[in-house]
Amino acid sequence: MAEVATTPPTHRQLFVGMQQVALSSFGGGLSAWSERIVVEERQWMSKEEFITGLTVARLFPGPNQINMAVYIGSHFRGLTGAIAALLGILLLPFSLLMLLGLGYYYLHETLAVDRVLSGVITASAGMALSMGFKIAGAYSRDPVALLLAGSSFLAMSVFHVRLVPLVLVAGPLAMAWYWPRQPKP
Q1: Looking at the predicted structure, is the pLDDT value of residue 28 above 70?
Q2: Number of Cα atoms under 13 Å in the Cβ half of residue 83
Q3: How far apart are CA 76 and CA 10, in angstroms?
């Protein structure tokens, strides 16, 4: 397991790190790239800290990785760190997206553009699966976590349960199960 850095990242490092996440994952796979950069490359957090942050980010409304950038920035530098990380993940990618949107508006009927976009979608699906397997590995020895994940998957994919009711039921169950308990004397 990789060591976690002892000194917290600076505002500049948060901005550049989140910008690296955003640009590395352009087209999808933000969670996988975020984990790779924050945990494996920069060693700002342990895998467990990252998964905790990702869970928190997914509970709040809005895009998960925007929430994750805010979580990471505030974890290390408070409000100003959250702003630095948020700007890092949004500023350049948003500008590039606007330029790409303008280009797509003029070139969307070109067959080559359609084929390139099909390839990007396939790669994005692979990155999302990769992140799922990485998270599953962290919980592979926890039967309750696997039961909750499997039940949630079946509820959504087989029984077509909507996300909000599922979170309202599974969330409190998971929190009750994993809530820290006082050891018995």
Answers
A1: no
A2: 3
A3: 8
